[in-house]
Amino acid sequence: MLVDTRNIISMTDANQNFSKVARLVDQNGSAVIMKNNRPRYLIVNFEETDSIQMASDTDVSVVSKRLIKQNRKAYEELAK
Known about the structure:
Layout: E1 8-10, H1 11-16, H2 18-28, E2 30-35, E3 38-44, H3 49-70, H4 72-79
Parallel strand pairs: 1-2
Antiparallel strand pairs: 2-3
């Protein structure tokens, strides 16, 4: 996942000034909260959650089809 550096905020700053996080989400669509210099939380606009879930379902479907194709013989043997 690519993270726009304009959307990054520290845990301390988010804790002390949550309205800043909300403004970032309103302006840029998301905010990443860093904890111990690592991305820890992703805050997104609630209206975006359906599109995030749909992308996830699509990814699972693509991976499942690839695994079935790669391991067809094993699945056929297990089905006996």
